[in-house]
Each structure stands twice: as structure tokens, then as C-alpha cells.
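job 3f2a | input accepted
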Amino acid sequence: MALRAALLRHVRVPLQTLNPAVTLTGPKWGPPHLRWMSSHDDHLTKNEVTDRVLSVVKCFPKVDPSTVTPDVHFQKDLGLDSLDNVEIVMALEEEFKLEIPDKEADKIDSTNLAIEYIYNHPMAS
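job 3f2a | predicted structure (125 res):
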């Protein structure tokens, strides 16, 4: 406790109060919303996610790009095997800079499921 008090005496952080009337997401009354400083304001749109997922799948060596749609199934429609499925999920992880747990990755077997998972992932970028 004494160390904390000594530290706080020497460290001064300027406090700037926000006027709730001028915040972009807050109301004109009451305290500003915490969402104002959230990192999720730059979340990807569904169209951006769709375009990038389709691009990753189209670039996969065993896939004919003309057959890739937002509803294509990796094994049934594209003729890929389970190892190819894993490689596509890994490519998606790299593209969107996120890590998909194995249990979730096993469920992603179509572009539609990949789009939904990535769109709903809070850390996708």
C-alpha cells in the first residue's frame, strides 16, 4: 500500500473529461458509452469477410476458382479432402490474423461457415 501511495504521488496522468454531447456514440445526456474507445469499431463488414474468404479459397491450388461461391462446400462441391480442409482453415487464420481452435476448425467445411465464423470473431482483422 505504501509503495502504491508513493508511486501515485510521483506519477501524474492528465485526466481529460469527455463532453457527452459531442461523443460520436454517446447520448446527449449522461455518461459517455464505453464503446467510444472500443477496438471493435473497425470490425470487418460481412462483404469484406466474404470477399476475402472467397479469395483465399479461390487461390487454393486444388480449387477451380470459377466454382467458388459463398455457399460452396469444400468436400461435396470442390472435391477436397480433410487435409485440404485443414489447409484452407490455416490459410484463413493467416489471412484474418486470428487463431481458430481445433474444435471450431473441424466444423468449418464450407465457405458459408467460414464467413460466419470469421465475421462473428471479435479479433478478425
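job 3f2a | Confidence is low (pLDDT under 50) at residues 29-40.
job 3f2a | closed
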